[in-house]
């Protein structure tokens, strides 16, 4: 297992360096001066120019410039935003919790509804039920996320007026940010309106979370169904049935834990797609997360925001993908057996 973890670590380092190299090349092709693109300082002083040339080795060869660029970016020096004139790393820290909160709620919705439907589709003997569930998942997988988001906004936000279609919370509620997660901050707030603020925050997150949850929901249903169909025919399941165990006990204690292993693996494989969908959802619903912040930076040609946003999101996706892969091998006995056999 130690050798496997070392290989995953080497993969993370190699992928990260390749990513930084791509961003480095793109940065040097921005239609702006190198100092402006690297630091975000529009009118640098002579001292700032000298410091930037020293920090980024601009007077040396390309390889030394890449090493200096990598050192600066990995040390947290992402420059300042051209638009707001604030450090890019501070802006990332402000918008990242909103994206995490939306993603977590969407994943919880996908798992809570996807796993039971996947189990029902695998165990039901009714062909109508099976085909209906699979038709729902196929439809959900085929619907463009931007069309779904706009349609939900039009129906439930504009025509019916049931739910808000932008932002995280009504601006009338003054909630002091503590964790960055608005659902938690409203509950721990000492405001007398914290319950009303919490309900308002839930109403704001419903539409974007449902829109973002559709894709993982369809994947969870399909993978859970296939895994359950395979596991329910295994000898240990047949032995449990022969001992007279109730079907619910067999499913929850013996089949479902093993069926969730491939679900975890497939969720890890689709992190990149999930992140791209998240950016679209944040733009549609004006959700103040990393996605809408990055798109705004692209429109405003904020070069430091583009570099910092792409680097931060990409490194996070790579890291989480490797973590999920490690967890999959840790919880899957078959994968561990193959791993040790390979070693």
UniProtKB/TrEMBL annotation:
Q: Where in the cell is it found?
A: Cell membrane
- Which InterPro entries does this one have? MetI-like, MetI-like_sf
Residue limits of the ABC transmembrane type-1 domain? 96-328
Q: Which UniProt keywords apply?
A: Cell membrane, Membrane, Transmembrane, Transmembrane helix, Transport
Transmembrane residue ranges: 9-30, 102-123, 135-158, 201-223, 267-285, 305-327
Q: Supply the Pfam families for this chain.
A: BPD_transp_1
Tell me the superkingdom of the source: Bacteria
Signal peptide positions are none
The protein's topology relative to the membrane is: Multi-pass membrane protein
Q: Which family does it belong to?
A: Belongs to the binding-protein-dependent transport system permease family. OppBC subfamily.
Name used for this protein in its record: ABC transporter permease
Q: Which organism is it from?
A: Shewanella youngdeokensis
């Amino acid at each position: 297992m130690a050798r496997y973890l070392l290989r995953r670590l080497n993969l993370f380092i190699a992928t990260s360096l390749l990513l930084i190299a791509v961003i480095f090349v793109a940065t040097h092709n921005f239609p702006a001066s190198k100092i402006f693109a690297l630091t975000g300082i529009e009118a640098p002083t002579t001292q700032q120019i000298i410091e930037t040339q020293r920090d980024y080795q601009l007077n040396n060869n390309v390889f030394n410039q890449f090493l200096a660029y990598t050192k600066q970016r990995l040390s947290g020096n992402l420059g300042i935003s051209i638009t707001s004139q604030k450090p890019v790393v501070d802006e990332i820290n402000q918008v990242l919790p909103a994206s995490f909160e939306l993603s977590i709620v969407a994943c919880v919705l996908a798992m809570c509804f996807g796993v039971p439907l996947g189990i029902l589709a695998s165990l039901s003997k009714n062909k109508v039920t099976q085909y209906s569930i699979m038709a729902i998942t196929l439809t959900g997988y085929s619907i463009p996320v931007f069309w779904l988001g706009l349609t939900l906004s039009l129906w439930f936000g504009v025509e019916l007026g049931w739910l808000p279609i932008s932002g995280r919370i009504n601006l009338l509620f003054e909630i002091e940010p503590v964790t960055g997660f608005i659902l938690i901050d409203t509950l721990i707030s000492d405001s007398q309106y914290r319950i009303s603020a919490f309900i308002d925050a839930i109403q704001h997150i419903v539409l974007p979370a449902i829109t973002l949850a559709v894709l993982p929901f369809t994947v969870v249903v399909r993978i859970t169904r296939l895994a359950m169909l395979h596991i329910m025919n295994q000898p240990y399941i047949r032995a449990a049935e022969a001992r007279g165990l109730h079907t619910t006990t067999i499913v929850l204690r013996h089949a479902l834990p093993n069926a969730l292993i491939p679900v975890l693996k497939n969720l890890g494989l689709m992190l990149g797609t999930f992140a791209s969908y998240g950016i679209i959802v944040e733009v549609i619903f004006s959700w103040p997360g990393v996605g809408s912040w990055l798109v705004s930076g692209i429109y405003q040609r904020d070069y430091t925001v583009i570099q910092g946003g792409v680097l931060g999101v990409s490194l996070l996706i790579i890291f989480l993908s490797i973590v999920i892969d490690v967890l999959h091998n840790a919880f899957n006995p078959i994968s561990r057996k193959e791993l040790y056999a390979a070693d």
